[in-house]
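Priority: low. Protein: OsmC family protein. Input follows.
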Amino acid sequence: MSNENQKVEDAAVRLVEGMHFAGEIDGFSIDLDAEESAGGRGKGTQPMRLLLLGMAGCTAMDVISILRKKRQQISALEVEVRGDRREEHPRTYERAEILYRVRGEGVDPKAVERAIELSESRYCPAIATIGKSAQITSRYEIEEG
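Result:
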């Protein structure tokens, strides 16, 4: 049952060998593998870790877009996400910490704070999704240059 206003997105994986899968999304390929204790052989990233990458990419795109609209002179933006998973299955993330590293000329800390707040509370669907089961905290650093 789909709503006319919903955007349908597709992803697929194909078994290569062992626990190694080849994934495809939007015409791009990505290798997936399990951890060694589950039969993985280091042929790709573990699928759950892609959630952290999705969160980092999603909020980074929001934040840079908002900062550009605020006419902030940003020369670099890095976003790191560290997640802690539960020991019991289904081993969801229980905590995630986001670190924003912003570099630019005369960057206004209030503009950075507002951009992060808007992304985390309103725009980033990855944070909204993971935030349903995990406590999400964030911090930022600004470097001149």
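Helices lie at 47-69, 109-123, 125-130. The CA atoms of residues 96 and 136 lie 5 Å apart.
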